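FW: tagging you since you asked about this chain on Friday. Here's the raw sequence from the shared folder, copied in full. Didn't touch anything.
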Amino acid sequence: ERVNYPTYKDKDKAAKVLSEFEQLASEYKSFIGWRRNPVNLVYTNIESDYRTRKSFNQSLDKSIWFFGGSTIWGTGVSDNETIPSNVAKITNEKVFNFGESAWNSRQSLNQLISVIGDGKIPKKVIFYDGVNEIYGCYANSLNLKMPFHGRETLIKDSVKGSSNFYGAGARFSGILNYISLKLTEPYILLFKNFQSRNQVSKIEQPYECDSNKKVTSDVAKHLLNNWYSAYLITKAKGADFIGILQPALHSSNTPKSYLPLEDYENEVNNYKHIYERIRIEIKNSCSYDKNFCESLIDGSKWINSKKPVFIDSAHLNKHGNKIIAEKIIEGF
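HL: got it, structure written out here
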């Protein structure tokens, strides 16, 4: 259906890009939830030890590291048309794309910690967030506490029925076999349920950020605290940090009548409340760390285009990604 949107001029290429997206599979990964499996396709390539999407002018050490969800990852475009690739093409800087579909800022923070733990050093770190923080609006209705990511219920359901990691059996003979079995059992079950095509959590409860001010506040505060932790880590490594509140359909001025807007109504109502609260928390950050505050950018209104650039409520075509890349560079 998206192929027929006016956002795509080359329909054959768009069909191929979106078809490749449907072929991608994910698997569980410690601390960050999931990563896509390596692939080598025409327009989509997942490589490196970190299962990251290939970028134009890619390099890991002393480069610009991008973190975020599927908009940074590049849903709907080829490897060379993502936001990181556009930044590299415009500036000739080395870049590395750590974005992953459905990730929120906490998962990006955990990924940053893992890469730093591997001894890698960035030149600049960019967190591009906002849209996927909406998953936190589910937490209260599911009786879960923040932090919370969008596939928590999927993963929990996948390991249900597995034995406890610890028990009396560990104190008897065969302890090594017991530990090996019990540690691998839930993950074997998980892989069986989480393999093949990407899966998303089927959560029937509605988002609550349009009706519950405490939930909205928790979501926004977690984002700012995650950004602040990433800022401190990045600063300690002698690199620059930029935190960006990303644009979405609801905050942008661009043609959108071709989209099924009624399908996005619930999301839009929640995004409006989340973004309003995030802006308040950004302003509050100036009171406890002025330098951190100055590293944050409200990019929610960056899309002001007469051309249609959205392929849904958050993802952009190559023209939209170029607009974002140019705006990011202005903040360097």
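FW: The radius of gyration is 20 Å.
HL: agreed, and The longest helix spans residues 213-236.
FW: great, closing this out.
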